[in-house]
Amino acid sequence: MKMPNLLDAKIRNESVVEYIEAEPLKDRDLFKGKTYFLKTYGCQMNVHDSELIRNLVEGLGFIESEKMEGTDLVILNTCAIRENAHDKMYGFLGRCKHEKDKNRDLIICICGCMAQEPSVCEEILEKYKYVDIVFGTHNIHEFPTMLANRMNKTDFEVESIEGNVYENLEYKRDSKIEAWVNIMYGCDKFCTYCIVPYTRGKQRSRKSSKILEEIADLKARGYKEVTLLGQNVNAYGKDLPEEELSFPELLLKVSDLGIDRIRFVTSHPWDFSDELIAAIASRENIVPYIHLPLQSGSSRILKLMGRRYTKEEYLELYDKIKNRVPNAAITTDIIVGFPGETEEDFLDTLEVVEKCQYDSAFTFIFSPRVGTPAEKLPDDTPLKEKEERLHRLNEVVNRLSLEKNSQYVGQVVKVLINGKSEKGENKMCGYTETMKLVNVEGATEHLGEIVDVLITDAKSFSLNGEIQ
Ligand code: 5AD
Ligand code: SF4
Fold first, then answer.
1. More confident residue, 39 or 13
2. Nearest bound ligand to the CA of residue 333
3. For labelling alongside 340, which of 5, 278, 284, 424 has CA 20 to 30 A away?
């Protein structure tokens, strides 16, 4: 298997994107009656990739099993964003080995971002001989061929063809109510801590006509919500010819298709234009929910991170959004303990968090990723201190979430009921337009509907309510 060299990523970025229509699946039913177990780690992009993998393997005749024990095929879709992702993968591989000892015909596959990292890929192929197939994020569509080859015990060589866009891919979507739609792949931002531009490759936007076709089809099939997906979703189109749509233009066209709710993740503040804010403000079905990663509140650290904005510029953008879309829920991602982060830098982060009153925030301790520039920066802050900062940050974040959620009590809000609640037998759950999870008594007959719910109670991570 040929894998790219991490340090070649910037050079690879100059290459031309090819748009390829994926071949329909051959050898349907080749594995009829066999079962597979799929485990997914990581972000929504990975979860959506797993929807593609599911469709491919089920097209070959496999049936999904809820547990690894006793299956014929195990697939692990990995994440590489932080170090603990490695630990999870190696822990899982230990369980796989145990199963393979019991069943020598078991086929074990590792894919996703971690498998795309050359050093990890080589290590697995060399040291973990019981793993049968390793593939990356760029060649998922070739998985059936790899499996078929493995079955016939012929040698296979898979080239990881990077940087192309495959169309006509079919997904086995988890939900019949909410769907993710990839509108672009990869990322060109090269934030100094981040592995994504290396594992997912350069930014490649899909053609707008293909995206609109896919969403029109989802609407026709009764989907109520789409989330436009990309690592840097609001940079959509910047890699396309001028006559193509910009992200705000695409958003308005998607809105015209009449789907009830449209979201998009993840946005980079640098690409958040006035035109985009105007588009969100102008349409009812573009929901007022914006994930706007801050990463750090210190301009000095933001510079070291290569984020392309200062604390002041971020706050200015935040104000602009809040002025035009006052009811917008804003959520964020924050990294503490970036190399060289001082107490003063950290206090800047806390200050921005207090100012922005985030609805919620994903918080992380910096994790050095091999091959990224930040891995080599001097870092003399002890882990214990970083953990304390994380703890202090989480206290503020959770307090703000609870305050925000408490403001909903007594209000009637629109909730898209999407499934059974984990909070009790007779409960269903769903999301508000602002992405708040609501548990509702009864409501089974409202699955897939947008209903009015009176909010009766608020917690940091969810709300309780009654159907009106
Ligand atoms: N260490 C810690 N957190 C990271 N993230 C990305 N890379 C790293 C890293 N090396 C976080 C960022 C990003 C989110 C998806 O994961 O906050 O927005
Ligand atoms: Fe990573 Fe996001 Fe920065 Fe891209 S914009 S390099 S995905 S953190």
1. 39
2. 1
3. 5
**CB of residue 191 inside a 6 A radius of ligand 2:** yes
In terms of pLDDT, which residue wins out, 208 or 31? 208
Strands 184-185 and 204-205, sheet pairing: antiparallel
Q: How is the beta sheet containing 63-64 ordered, strand by strand?
A: 63-64, 35-40, 73-78, 107-112, 133-134
| 466 membership: H or E segment, kind and range | strand 463-467
For the beta carbon of residue 410, count every other beta carbon within 10 angstroms.
9
Question: What's the 155 CA to ligand 2 centre distance in angstroms?
Answer: 36
CA-to-CA distance for 114 and 111, rounded, in angstroms?
7
Q: Per the omega criterion (within 30 degrees of 0), is the bond before 432 cis?
A: no
- Are 206 and 184 spatial neighbours (Cβ–Cβ below 8 Å)? yes
| CB of residue 193 inside a 6 A radius of ligand 1 | yes
Mean pLDDT for all residues in the chain: 91
Tell me the CA–centroid distance for residue 191 and ligand 2, in Å.
5
Q: With a 6 A CB cut-off, is 82 part of the ligand 2 pocket?
A: no
Between the alpha carbon of residue 127 and those of residues 77, 194, 252, the distances in Å are 19, 26, 50
Q: Probe ligand 1: pick from 198, 335, 365, max atoms within 8 Å of CB? A: 335
d(CA 121, CA 138): 14
Shortest-distance ligand to the CA of residue 271: 2
Place of tokens 């069943």: 103
pLDDT tens, residue by residue, 338-367: 999 999 999 999 999 999 999 999 999 999
Which runs of consecutive H residues, i.e. helices, occur in 78-174? Answer: 83-102, 113-116, 118-127, 143-151
Query: How far apart, in whole angstroms, are the C-alpha atoms of residue 111 and residue 135?
Result: 5
Calculate the CA 243 to chain-centre distance: 29
Is 367 touching ligand 1 by the criterion CB < 6 Å? yes
Closest C-alpha to 63, from 27, 35, 32: 35
